[in-house]
Amino acid sequence: MISLRRVGKRYADGSEALREVDLQIAGGEMVVLLGPSGAGKSTLLRLMGGIERASSGTVEIFGQNPAQLDAGRLALVRQQIGLIFEDFKLLHDRNALQNVLVPLEIAGYRGAEARKRARAALEKVGLGDRESARPDNLSGGEQQRLCIARAVVSRPALILADEPSGNLDAAQAAAIADMLKAFNAIGTTVVVATHDPLFRDRLAGRAVKVEAGRAYTVGSGGKGWVT
Ligand SMILES: Nc1ncnc2c1ncn2[C@@H]1O[C@H](COP(=O)(O)OP(=O)(O)OP(=O)(O)O)[C@@H](O)[C@H]1O
Ligand SMILES: [Mg+2]
After folding, report:
1. Does pLDDT of 70 surpass 80?
2. Residue 95: CB within 6 Å of ligand 1?
3. What is the pLDDT of residue 57?
4. 113 near 124, Cβ under 8 Å?
5. Quick one: which atom of ligand 1 is closest to the CA of 193?
6. What are the backbone angles phi and psi of residue 22, rounded to the nearest 5°?
7. Where are the domains positioned within the chain?
8. Nearest protein CA to atom 16 of ligand 1, as residue
9. Ligand number with the minimum distance to the CA of 36
10. 56, 115, 136, 215: most buried by Cβ count inside 10 Å?
11. pLDDT in tens, 119-161
């Protein structure tokens, strides 16, 4: 599903975020990226999402190299990926329901069917009673949950999540972990970067440690997670 071979990433300012990363993620896996701040976890997720290009090496997403795709084909790949990123922009001139409708409309859903699905996704993240609120009138945790609803509503084949429990309390974080696990249980590939030990333990899955721009598998099923 995702293949990185000898991938390096150097930003325009010269900082080297990733070095010679080899990582293969099979369809249906749950992978948890661990590692200290600045290690390269977010960079790795952005490469996997086709949002940024590698400086060296090869990235394949669903068997396709994003660097070799035209904008239209890249958009088709990105449609199959649900992104849960803190800086991933919500539309501030639309309410919560309308934000969640966006990926559904892109996927071809319209009218009552689209609204039904969007409301179900809002319910799942505990925002069923906030569908008319604009993002600016939601708390940080609520905005994060709205991003999650938007990311999962069109049932993407791959979910990439960067610190999805960052702004959430323990109960909300547990609910989000369980939701990601439920998607994984029906075959969705899930890759999550997290610092949160409770969240990490609840997700279980395969642990990949990212350190100084390199990535190694260190355990699976919740074992080997000494950080
Ligand atoms: N847009 C950018 N331009 C320049 N350097 C960047 C950029 N984004 C990240 N970096 C650098 O790349 C390295 C890896 O950053 P990255 O954000 O991937 O780390 P991280 O593991 O996600 O950290 P954190 O746990 O703090 O989120 C860091 O040294 C960072 O300063
Ligand atoms: Mg990060």
Report:
1. yes
2. no
3. 97
4. no
5. 22
6. -115, 120
7. 1-80+157-227, 90-155
8. 40
9. 1
10. 215
11. 999 999 999 999 999 999 999 889 989 999 999 999 999 999 9
Please state the three-class secondary structure of the chain as a single string.
CEEEEEEEEECCCCCEEEEEEEEEECCCCEEEEECCCCCCHHHHHHHHCCCCCCCEEEEEECCECHHHCCHHHHHHHHHCEEEECCCCCCCCCCCHHHHHHHHHHHCCCCHHHHHHHHHHHHHHCCCHHHCCCCHHHCCHHHHHHHHHHHHHCCCCCEEEEECCCCCCCHHHHHHHHHHHHHHHHCCCEEEEECCCHHHHHHHCCEEEEEECCEEEEEEECCCCCCC
Burial of 140 (0-12, 13-18, 19+ CB in 10 A): exposed
* Ligand number nearest to the C-alpha of 8: 1
- Calpha distance 209→79 (Å, rounded): 28
CATH number of the 1-80+157-227 domain: 3.40.50.300
pLDDT confidence band for 27 (50 / 70 / 90)? very high
- 197 C-alpha vs ligand 1 centroid, how far in Å? 21
Which amino acid appears at position 73 of this protein?
Answer: R
* Rounded distance from Cα 15 to ligand 1 centre (Å): 9
